[in-house]
Write a structure and sequence with these properties.
Layout (H helix, E strand, L loop, with lengths): L8 H27 L8 H12 L2 H14 L4 H13 L1
Length: 89
């Protein structure tokens, strides 16, 4: 981090963005870890409250949607079709 100031402005900005992204990911992991319910603690009432809290919070739903889209293979059908055509040739 001390050498960050010695980088060119564009490099410093790019590295700073990567560092911030890493910080966000670490924080998200910590948040998730703190919310994980131990199996022995899981019961119908707690599960119901968790589900209701998730589905009633539009920002959480949007975040979950964005996260799911970030790792989705949106062109999976095309990839499968291309591979099938390659196999037939």
């Amino acid at each position: 981090m001390k050498k960050l100031g010695q980088l060119a402005a564009d490099d410093r900005k790019a590295l700073g963005q990567k560092i911030n992204k890493a910080k966000e990911q670490i924080q998200e992991l910590l948040d998730k870890k703190s919310k994980i319910l131990e199996e022995k603690e899981l019961n119908k009432d707690k599960l119901e409250k968790l589900i209701v809290s998730l589905i009633s919070d539009d920002s959480k739903l949007q975040k979950m949607s964005n996260n799911a889209k970030s790792f989705a293979q949106t062109n999976a059908a095309q990839i499968l079709a291309d591979k099938a055509i390659e196999l037939v040739k």
